[in-house]
Amino acid sequence: MVVEVSLRHGIADPEGATIERALPTLGFSGVSDVRAGKAFRLLVDANSADEAIEKTRGLATRLLSNPVIEDAHVRIDDES
């Protein structure tokens, strides 16, 4: 399973802004709206994909993210 956590739109993202400002000096142009986040990869023991997603969603909202300012997106890892 993969959990991707990012700040909600409208919440200031200083890390993303710093990366965006640095891009032109590194030779990258045409890149905007950079948002930083974090990703977690988990192996979840479950009887079905739906059960694994539900378990992981609960874990993501209770432990891996702050639901007040962050969004957590759960998906099945294609490499598993």
Describe what this molecule looks like in 3D.
- With 80 residues, the chain is α+β, with helices and mostly antiparallel strands.
- The protein has a three-stranded antiparallel β-sheet, covered by helices on one side.
- It contains two helices and three strands, in the order βαβαβ.
- The longest helix is centred in the C-terminal third of the chain and has 16 residues, at 49-64.
- It is elongated, with a radius of gyration of 16 Å.
- Helices cover 31% and strands 21% of the residues.
- The model has no long low-confidence stretch (mean pLDDT 96).
- It has one domain: Phosphoribosylformylglycinamidine synthase subunit PurS (Mth169, Chain: A, 2-Layer Sandwich), CATH 3.30.1280.10.
- It has helices at residues 14-22, 49-64, and strands at residues 2-7, 37-41, 70-75.
Q: Major sheet: size, sense and barrel closure? A: 3 strands, antiparallel
Sheet with most strands: strand arrangement: 2-1-3
Find the CATH topology: Mth169, Chain: A
- Pattern of helices and strands: EHEHE
Mean pLDDT over the residues: 96
Q: Report strand %.
A: 15-25%
The total of helices stands at 2
Shape: elongated
Under CATH, the homologous superfamily reads: Phosphoribosylformylglycinamidine synthase subunit PurS
User: CA-to-CA gap between the ends?
Assistant: 8 Å
* Beta strand count: 3
Rg over C-alpha atoms, rounded to the nearest angstrom: 16 Å
Structural class: alpha+beta
